[in-house]
Design goal:
By secondary structure, the protein is of the alpha/beta class. It has two domains: about 5-170, 3-Layer(aba) Sandwich (Rossmann fold), CATH 3.40.50.720; about 185-275, ProC C-terminal domain-like fold (Orthogonal Bundle). Helix content is about 55%, strand content about 15%. The chain has helices spanning about 5-10, 20-30, 45-55, 65-70, 85, 90-95, 110-115, 150-160, 175-180, 185-200, 205-225, 230-235, 245-255, 255-275; strands at about 15, 40, 60, 75, 100-105, 125, 135-145, 165-170. Strands 3-2-1-4-5-6-7-8 form an eight-stranded mixed β-sheet, sandwiched between helices. α7 (about 110-115) links the parallel β5 (about 100-105) and β6 (about 125). α9 (about 175-180) crosses α14 (about 255-275) and α10 crosses α11 (about 205-225).
């Protein structure tokens, strides 16, 4: 489904919570041509609502009940620890209207949302990541059995406004998504930070080391995205036998970098399961 097709349906979208992620999704939708008149956002932060309204022209309110009254899709964008308290007062309206429920809260299971909002509701659980703030995110999605194909298309279109989307058949896959892409930006920031610091130790100025590191990371990601070959092959193509790259990679591999990432992602996935339980 395209933004135009979603617009043609006049699907009314309601965001409960207007923080950074909700703002990014709303901004992406409006930038791609989705009518601001079909988007509502509710949040207790009046200043944040005013900023959203000024930047995107959407409807805003501090009243959650008012916001969801006519919603076709309800996007829950509040912190996990307050999700239950936010959802409980909305259950009556949600049961009556039966909108598509979309959660972007890490660690909140579909069963939790059903407990708080009501049985037999269409629920999509998502895991976007922070590059969504610059419309370069990666979002994993899982739908329960009550979500229709059209509702899946709506969710895909909403999160397609901030980057790429991938659907998963099993909810437990979301813990793996958390480990790879949800927490993933921090892994790359750590690697970039280490390269920057090493460049400074070699004698580069901090600003030059940062600029070279960030641009190289960006270029490598773009090259990988544009290529149809495996990442291992891309690595081989820039690794000349006996050259500088080979010397650096040998140190990283002998230091156990691959094994460290194995352990790191397992730790992240395990922690995601613990938080959900």
């Amino acid at each position: 489904m395209t933004i135009k097709q979603l617009t043609d349906q006049s699907a009314r979208l309601c965001f409960i919570g207007a923080g950074n992620m909700a703002s990014s999704i709303i901004g992406g939708l409006v930038e791609q041509g989705y009518p601001a008149s079909l988007i509502h956002a509710a949040d207790p932060d009046i200043a944040q609502l005013a900023k959203l309204k000024k930047e995107n022209g959407i409807h805003t309110t501090t009243d959650n009940q008012q916001a969801i009254a006519e919603a076709d899709a309800l996007i829950l964008a509040v912190k996990p620890q307050v999700m239950g308290a936010v959802c409980a007062p909305l259950s009556g309206t949600v049961r009556q209207k039966r909108p598509l429920i979309i959660s972007i809260a890490a660690g909140i299971k579909v069963s939790n949302l059903i407990d708080w909002l009501g049985d037999d509701l269409p629920v999509v659980r998502t895991m976007p990541n922070t590059p969504a703030l610059v419309q370069s995110g990666a979002t994993g999605l899982y739908a329960n059995q009550y979500v229709t194909k059209m509702q899946q298309d709506i969710a895909t279109t909403i999160f397609g406004a901030i980057g790429m989307t991938r659907w998963f058949d099993q909810e437990e896959d979301m813990d793996r998504v958390v480990a790879v892409s949800g927490s993933g930006p921090a892994y790359f920031f750590l690697v970039m930070e280490a390269i920057e610091q090493a460049g400074v130790k070699l004698g580069l100025s901090p600003s030059i080391a940062r600029d070279l590191t960030v641009q190289t990371a960006l270029g490598a990601a773009k090259l990988a995205q544009a290529s149809d070959v495996e990442l291992a092959e891309l690595r081989r193509r820039v690794t000349s036998p006996g050259g500088t790259t080979e010397a650096a990679l040998k140190v990283l591999q002998e230091g156990g970098l691959v094994e460290l990432f194995d352990r790191a992602l397992i730790a992240a996935s395990d922690r995601s399961k613990e938080l959900a339980d």
